[in-house]
Design a protein that fits this description.
The protein is 67% helix and 9% strand. It has 496 residues and is an alpha+beta fold. The protein has a single domain, classed as Up-down Bundle (Outer membrane efflux proteins (OEP)), CATH 1.20.1600.
């Protein structure tokens, strides 16, 4: 007995030692492996860039390779898997059990007479030393079925909420692609001219400094000229920096590595802004029907209403029926296999007293979601109004910027002619070249805002940025062709 006790204590000590755990910090090796593997995986997922990228290919790459979109898609898939799994909870439980029991001696017993107090039977046994038992039992709890059905419906609505969030994510990404693409196009269009201008400015600045140092020119005009050249050079460098950032932003949206070199297709002419087709009231109606935020709120209200039903059901008694087949290797039994069946009922009385409070909380949640729905509807209407006003305002700004770029181009042409005839100074020529580049950059910046504003109209309306039947699993070329057909019509008649 003493050895058995010591063995039990030692076994318990070993078990406790095995259950202990420690958490260590991430090692440098792990972070280094992650850095290498993550970079390699990102590069492996990319569709190789084999030609200049058009707007629609940029949109297609964003739809297929953007990592934020992929995360949103995986979250939606995970929510759908939770819903699919929850439907199994509504089925009856079928449980198979197997057990082995053994002992070192016989499990004998005797009986004691309650009348005489004497032993009435010799010690006997009805169990073998080693027994194998097994059973297969099916049970179905009516209350659990009702609660599982409600939980499944709630998870189904959660899956739909995640799908709306995925739609919202890709709609926003497409809007960002429009803006970044046209900014990057402007960068490629003006890059060579900026490089040439910076070279001219640097040469003119050094020449002026030499003339000032050797006193071959009046000091104040020379210094004023140098200050102006320095200002021009600063503007050129800031413009170059913004353009470089635009290409990196577009690369990130397309899922390309930041150091990936690529070229863009330069449009022969920038698209002219079209006139809005829908009225403000029509746009409001479409937005309240289609916006992901509105639909998400309606699903949230459904979940809250199911919570009220759940609180009511949990206060009811639980009734469970079961049936099963059993078998035992014990030869002392007259019947070694048999079928068992029965029913049992239980009632958690404490939940009855808390039902009122839980229903009150569930109703408060529904009321909160409805109020959020009204706030969302108000925000949607405001966004539609802002999107419409911004688009119409930018259409006028774009026309003004285009006219300004055209006039500045004519001025530069005149100055270049005068400079060839030695009737205009180098200073004036450099200044007007910079003004020409800046005017074109301003026009392109407004164009980028116009493209974003056009896409934002469809964001405000809640329209999907891709055609029905496209889900991002197709190849880039197929997605790009579908997007081009859809967005060419949208640019022609915005808000349709």
């Amino acid at each position: 007995m003493r050895n058995l006790f010591l063995g039990s204590v030692c076994g318990a000590a070993l078990l406790l030692a095995g259950c202990s755990s420690t958490v260590t910090r991430v090692s440098d090796t792990e972070t280094a492996n992650f850095a290498n593997s993550s970079r390699a995986e990102i590069l492996a997922r990319q569709t190789p860039v084999t030609q200049s990228i058009s707007l629609y290919e940029a949109m297609a790459r964003a739809l297929k390779h953007n990592l934020d979109h992929r995360v949103a898609m995986m979250e939606a898939d995970l929510a759908q898997a939770d819903y699919d799994l929850s439907r199994w909870d509504m089925l009856p439980q079928v449980v198979a059990n197997g057990q082995y029991y053994g002992r070192s001696n016989e499990a004998g017993a005797s009986s004691l007479s309650l009348l005489s107090g004497r032993q009435s039977l010799e010690p006997s046994t009805s169990t073998e030393r080693d027994v194998f038992t097994g059973d297969l039992t099916a049970s179905w709890n009516i209350l659990d079925f009702g609660l599982s059905k409600i939980r499944a419906e709630q998870l189904g609505n959660e899956a739909l909420i995640q799908e709306e969030r995925r739609r919202k994510a890709i709609i926003q990404i497409m809007e960002d692609v429009h803006r970044s693409y046209y900014r990057a196009v402007s960068a490629e269009r003006l890059a060579s001219r900026l490089t040439e201008l910076e070279g001219d400015v640097s040469t003119a600045f050094q020449t002026s400094r030499q003339q000032f140092a050797t006193r071959r020119t009046a000091p104040m005009p020379a210094l004023s000229y140098q200050r102006e050249l320095n200002d021009i050079q600063g503007q050129a460098k800031r413009l170059t920096r913004d353009m470089q950032m635009a290409k990196m932003e577009l690369a990130a949206l397309m899922g390309l590595s930041p150091d990936q070199r690529y070229n863009l297709q330069i449009p022969a002419q920038m698209p002219r802004p079209g006139k809005l087709v829908m009225t403000y009231e029509e746009m409001i109606d479409q937005a309240l029907r289609n916006r992901p935020e509105v639909r998400e709120n309606l699903y949230a209200q459904r979940i809250g209403e199911k919570e009220i039903k759940k609180a009511t059901l949990e206060a009811l008694p639980s009734l469970e029926g079961f049936v099963g087949i059993n078998a035992s290797s014990n030869d002392f039994l007259f019947n070694n296999d048999w079928a068992g069946y029965g029913a049992r009922a239980s009632w958690n009385l404490l939940k009855v007293f808390s039902t009122g409070t839980r229903k009150k909380k569930a109703k408060a949640r529904v009321a909160l979601e409805r109020e959020r729905g009204l706030a969302t509807a108000m925000a949607v209407m405001t966004q539609v109004g802002v999107a419409r006003t911004r688009y119409e305002s930018l259409a006028g700004e774009y026309q003004t910027a285009s006219d300004g770029a055209m006039v500045q181009g004519d001025i530069l042409g005149q100055i270049e002619s005068l400079a060839k005839a030695s009737s205009a100074s180098k200073q004036t020529l450099v200044r007007e070249r910079m003004n020409a580049i800046l005017s074109e950059a301003r026009r392109d910046a407004v164009m980028a805002e116009m493209a974003e504003a056009s896409a934002h109209i469809y964001t405000a309306l809640g329209y999907d940025p891709y055609a029905t039947g496209i889900d991002g699993t197709e190849d880039v070329q197929t997605i790009a062709e579908s997007l081009e057909a859809l967005w060419t019509e949208r640019v022609r008649t915005p808000g349709q």
